[in-house]
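Hi team, as promised in this morning's meeting, here are the two structures we talked about. I've kept the exact order from the run log so nobody has to guess. The first one is mostly here for context; it's the second one we should focus on when we meet again. Sequence first, then the predicted structure tokens.
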Amino acid sequence: MECRRCAACGAAFRPRAQVPQQRYCPMAACQRERRRRWQQIKLQSDADYRANQAQAHRAWAAGRSEYWREYRAKHPAYTDRNRLEQRRRDRHRRAARLAKMDASPSIHSVPSGTYRLVPEAEGDLAKKDAWTVRLTVISTDYEPGGEAGAILQREDVIGRAGPAC
């Protein structure tokens, strides 16, 4: 029989005569990959199979309520990594909630600098006052252990204290 390439590892193998359409070599890892791919396709295409698997998982979890607590106790590195990732996800979620309708998106942000604000309405000719303002962009990436120690300092918001007016 002719040699074929394994669909999982790419190694050459001779298929068994009893399995003419064999696409995976007999290595245990490749057979696991074959079963994993089959199950993935089955879960996507068969609603009954998907419901049965979900019910079996719920039954397994109900009988082993302490499983994850014990797993976390035995694998502290997993717990630490999960904690760090959760903090990152929480920061991202908080940043997404801060969006306001009148806030400029970061792509169109105004660069730091000095600007003159002039009223647009032309009806009130007696008051044509203009304000000169300084705009400073504040970074939103305050990481723990950074310069500000993960806390937005007062000086970051209103600038350094100057002479009293």
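And here is the second protein, the one for discussion:
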Amino acid sequence: NLAMIAKLMLIIPGYGHGRKRRDVDDEEEEKQLLAQEIETVRKADMAGCGMRLVCELGAADEDKLTEEELAILAFVGPGVVKPGEGLLPDSSLWEYQVSRVMGQVGANCAKAFPACPYNATKMVNAINDLL
């Protein structure tokens, strides 16, 4: 399960080595490939550890987050958005944005994602070890 989350972290710009940007002409193709990869990871993450990670990071004081943790939140996008500016429910990142909002409003992330046995600190440390 953490290996799948690590795979997701590898595609996040600014996380570790991240992925190199392609030419501007390939930007739309890059977005489509990224969305497909996120969807693959999301479907494989049966325990919801990726969403628990985003939930816990959303609950944290951003001043205390590491560069990598901030990159995760930046990649997911804003949790609270104005009507019409957010992602549609069929977007590959939508569930992660909802998870971020849950953390921002004080939800108990461990109870929201009970199948995931890891907290954010353990996940980030394990992922960094894998990468």
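Starting points for discussion:
The chain is about 55% helix and 0% strand.
Residues 2-130 form one domain.
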